[in-house]
Design a protein that fits this description.
By secondary structure, this protein is of the alpha/beta class. 36% of the residues lie in helices and 13% in strands. It has a domain at 65-225: NAD(P)-binding Rossmann-like Domain (Rossmann fold, 3-Layer(aba) Sandwich). Strands 3-4-5-6 form a 4-stranded parallel beta sheet, sandwiched between helices. β5, α5 (201-214) and β6 (222-225) form a beta-alpha-beta unit. The longest helix has 24 residues, at 144-167. Bound molecules: NADP nicotinamide-adenine-dinucleotide phosphate. The site of NADP nicotinamide-adenine-dinucleotide phosphate (NAP) has 29 residues, from α1. NADP nicotinamide-adenine-dinucleotide phosphate binds next to α1.
Length: 233
Amino acid sequence: MVGGGGIGRALVADLAERAPALELVMTSRSPQPPDLATRVRVLAVDLATDQSLLGLRESLTGGAPLRLVVCCAGLLHAPDLQPEKRLAQVRRSALERSFAVNAFGPLLLAQALEPLLPRDLPFHFASLSARVGSIGDNRLGGWYAYRAAKAAQNQLLHTLALEWRRRLPLACVSLMHPGTTATSLSGPFQGSVPPERLFSPRRAASQLLDVLERLTPEQSGQFWAWDGQPIPW
Ligand SMILES: NC(=O)c1ccc[n+]([C@@H]2O[C@H](COP(=O)([O-])OP(=O)(O)OC[C@H]3O[C@@H](n4cnc5c(N)ncnc54)[C@H](OP(=O)(O)O)[C@@H]3O)[C@@H](O)[C@H]2O)c1
């Protein structure tokens, strides 16, 4: 699990119960993310630096074969970064920061891990995208950097899926929308969400794993919602 945010930690907790035989690894920029099940190994990774990704590869080299990688890292806001409501608020620095985590991060993660991937075992590489990254579904506008970075991630990982289909035919690459989930990422924007449409991290994690469990390599390279429905690009 890459990214120790709300959904990342909930995915680890769910997997610890669902697949007790799996060795779980979580990456985070914090040395010890809160509320983590104890049998999880935590590695320090910042997706925005190549050195950190190389360090991840080295830490995992020689370990058990990777069966499931989920990139749960994402950036929508920070104390000095707010999603744009209009063109005048767009900043080059914010676009670059958003793309570094939301778009380039998952692809460069795949590149760093590729030498460790099993060729003879089914394998999932999933990354959390967002429905707002769908160009076909964009009716509201706003959030330029986040929307565009998620759309770029979708293209990058769809392209990766086509490459791996030839070289790693048992790999399944998936882009996943978790649904609006009560985490720090959505915190400032939850006011307009009806309670029944705001998932707890545990519910979101469980739904995502239910979808992933059903996906096969033939379906690699698609964009899925939390309920297993495809989302238009
Ligand atoms: N919550 C929602 O409603 C919602 C809706 C649609 C899509 N999503 C997507 O779901 C994913 C998970 O979000 P969340 O709701 O769990 O948000 P969150 O609690 O804010 O977690 C996001 C995590 O991303 C990690 N991250 C940020 N920058 C990073 C970097 N440079 N390198 C490595 N990790 C980095 C951080 O983990 P560490 O601090 O541990 O490093 C952070 O805790 C994101 O991709 C988000 O875009 C969420």
